[in-house]
Amino acid sequence: MAGLKRILFALWLALAAHPAWADTPPATPAMLLAEVYAADVDVSQYWVSEKFDGVRAQWDGRTLRFRGGGIVPAPAWFTASFPTVPLDGELWIARDRFDALSGTVRKIEPVDAEWRQVRYLIFELPGAAGDFSQRVRQMRAIVAQAGVPWLEAVEQVRVADKAELMQRLDAVLRTGGEGLMLHRADAAYQTGRSDALLKLKPWQDAEAVVVGHVPGKGKYRGMTGALQMEMPDGKRFRIGSGLSDALRRQPPPIGTRITYRYQQLTKNGVPRFPRYLRVREDF
């Protein structure tokens, strides 16, 4: 019996040492990240699409992964008929439904009824040849051939000038959207942050870490009045706007990374009129 135990223990050690069993973090997919739109950009050289407030996900032809590299725990039927080519896009339900989406895609055991609401909106073909105009046509053809109702190519349009761009932005904002994305038509596929992809919104957003909780006053007595935040460069500021009563009663713990919105930076380099948006999750 002792000999059998030694054999089993040795087998367990061998399995634990195998790379497939190693406790290593998932590889982060290489993705294209946007720069901020500048007024001097020649917008006629770009394709324009709505900026969707969803969860970024990349399909490698076999597996759907979050931006952080973790596998999306989607039901098998969701990806069963996806094409075998790599896709990049956003998991999305609808405007102003990010919290519902986040709750759905984070569940280890997926709920079919919740996933029936989710769409995968693709806007790029990782590694594909040709310029973006060619990839736009490829995306449309791939989606049409797949015939999956919840797989969609993001609508891409061209505009003649800045005035038409701003009209499109106003139309998106009036219906609850958050902004536009501009992708240079002649750009080859690339990853990392690049001006080949631009984002246009009426506000800026950034991330910072919670380093303290400021006690509330008046109607917020006994709750959190504001979050003390620290920027990547070490500068500190407070966020009080955008916090619900529930968040004030149970604020994000110290060390939590959050996303916030602001209008511009002050001369001291801190955000003007910051507003809490959500806890940042890389999934």
Keywords for this structure?
283 residues; 7 helices; alpha+beta; five-stranded mixed β-sheet
Tertiary shape: globular
Low-confidence stretches: 4-24
Would you tell me the overall average pLDDT? 89
Report how far the terminal alpha carbons are from each other.
45 Å
Strand portion: 25-35%
Would you count the extended β strands for me? 17
Q: By helix and strand content, what is the structural category? A: alpha+beta
Estimate percent helicity: 10-25%
Biggest sheet overview: 5 strands, mixed
How many helical stretches? 7
Radius of gyration: 22 Å
- State the order of secondary-structure elements, H for helix, E for strand: HEEEEHEHHEHEEHEEEEEHEEEE
How is the largest sheet built, in terms of strand order? 1-10-9-2-8
Give a short summary of the structure:
With 283 residues, the chain is α+β, with helices and mostly antiparallel strands. The chain is built from 7 helices and 17 strands.
How would you describe this structure to a colleague?
This protein has a five-stranded mixed beta sheet with strand order 1-10-9-2-8. It has a five-stranded mixed beta sheet with strand order 4-3-5-6-7, with helices on one face. It is built from seven helices and 17 strands. The chain is globular. With 283 residues, it is α+β, with helices and mostly antiparallel strands. The model is unreliable at 4-24 (pLDDT under 50).
